[in-house]
Amino acid sequence: MTIAKYIKLYFKLVSAGIRAQLQYRFAFVMRIIGMITAYTGTAVTMWVMLYQFQTLGDWNFFEMLFLFALSILSWGFCIILFFHFRSLDTYILNGTFDRFLVRPLNPFFHFMAMKFDIASFGQFLFSIVVFVIVSFQLQLEWTLGKLLFLLGAIVGGVLIQGGLLVIISAFAFWTTKSEQFYWVAMFPARNLTYYPLAIYPKFIQWITAFVIPFGFVNYFPTTVILNKETPYFPDYMGYFSPLVGVLFFGLAYFIWMLGLSRYKSTGS
Amino acid sequence: MSIIEVNNLQKEFMIAKRETGLVGALKSLVKREFVKKEAVKDISFSIEKGEMVGYIGPNGAGKSTTIKMLTGILVPSAGQVTVNGIVPYENRQENAKSIGVVFGQRTQLWWDLPTIESFELLKAIYRVTDQRYKENMSIFQEILGLDEFINTPVRQLSLGQRMRADIAASLLHDPPILFLDEPTIGLDVVAKEKMRTFIQEINKEKEVTVILTTHDMEDIEKLCQRMVLIDHGQKVYDGDILAVKERFGKMRTLVVDLEDANSSFHIKGGELCKQEGNRYWLRFNRNEVSASDLITQISQTHNIKDLTVEEPDIESIISRIYQEGFIEKQTVKG
């Protein structure tokens, strides 16, 4: 099948997924409200904390808010595209995963196209409001170049975080349960992105730059946009976000397919 | 060449040994021991175009493992498989185009959407042309009566309706081969009968080769001329269903609960095969003696509290075949 046909099919499958999701309107609305409330809560905590100290490292409240909003924005896209990979283990355990293997499609594509979680509307609303507020407060000038850079950073961030979700889901092919890896890897990694990496020990900064590259999700791009110092790293790191995203996601896809071939020889 | 060829097919799994108790569980966290399990030991058969074959055996016999290898979900440990000239595990996507698969317990339809939408999505997935789609849908509407529930969300369908929709969905792309895994499981008697008629008509109408796994001996009797019986990963019987029926289908078991649990009793024409407390199992050949005859005999000397007559199920037929050594590995000519 050609790429164009795959893309067309993707939209068809995804629109069915959205219609299915909209069957449960109450749950849908509650999730959006829940997300906005949760992130606003985190932002308020940040403010309370910084009210005492004024700055964290050399980051002030609005700079940190920008960092936070960028993380939430790309996470929002990531939820839309990849969040259901978290439940791959359930599909494998109850046998419904086999359905993806009796269809003439790439199973990764087919699984990815099964859901399109538009309830992350809350994340978008939150992060866009925050971007507007912060832009005024810090008097940011949004040139076309800067907007394109931001777009690249978002793409990179989606691919990096989506890549980690994909890698975690692939563990299910070996262990049949992968939910716990989500709490061990995804949750801490995402929490690290809420604060500037500069405040963490060198060791952790190094890991988030080169091992699980979550530094490229928001920290490095933000330092470029806001002209911040990046201790231990050159200041042009942020430009590599899209590239790191593509490479990391490629690695994730490779691991997933490796897991799939193991699944096909063990059955569970 | 036959449409399905299976030669010396084998599949073994490594299964983590589960230790009992908390200490055992902790021990297996650190060091896991694996046990080799041969799910399919050495199975060969070939199936001709248009045949309807019952692939049966007790739980854990290796039925679904075989089906998974035929559909390309699993890679065999050894042996050869070809389905419609394709090696399924090497060319899974190509193979998927020429097979339809129905897992009785798991639907392939989109749960929350009106039934028709699943068909439209499958049309896109299998790239069925508009014309084929129209033609097939009108055939399904005629045979399976999809019209009555086509706009109902799948989750609101009755089990019988859902199975009909599932079978139609698996045939939308005109596969020459159809795998039906427990297509009548959980259905009531009427719905079962309907389902069997549909399967028969579809086999006739579209010349589809059907491989059917089931626990229901009646499914096999009504649908298939041939059955492949497997147990413990090995083929026990392959051939005409009539031969098996003649040999074992005439055997019935009379189960009686007596008021007094006394001693032995000898009943002419009935062979006592099991006893538990007051309950006695008597096997008899229904061509030689009738159930009422046996009951009359028993009631002369004992007080009967309750009784039932059991027809042979697959498990008991398999155990009979083992006991009596009916292992003629005859294959239908092909």
TrEMBL record, chain B:
SMART domains, per the entry? AAA
Q: Where is the ABC transporter domain?
A: 24-257
Do you know which InterPro entries this protein is assigned to?
Answer: AAA+_ATPase, ABC_transporter-like_ATP-bd, ABC_transporter-like_CS, ABC_transporter_ATP-binding, P-loop_NTPase
Q: Does the keyword Protein biosynthesis apply?
A: no
Q: Which Pfam families match?
A: ABC_tran
Q: Which domain of life is it from?
A: Bacteria
One example of the protein's molecular function in GO is: ATP hydrolysis activity
Q: Which PROSITE patterns match?
A: ABC_TRANSPORTER_1, ABC_TRANSPORTER_2
| UniProtKB keywords | ATP-binding, Nucleotide-binding, Transport
Q: Which residues cross the membrane?
A: none
Q: Which PANTHER family match?
A: ABC TRANSPORTER ATP-BINDING PROTEIN, ABC-TRANSPORT PROTEIN, ATP-BINDING COMPONENT
Q: What is this protein called?
A: Sugar ABC transporter ATP-binding protein
Taxonomic source organism: Robertmurraya siralis
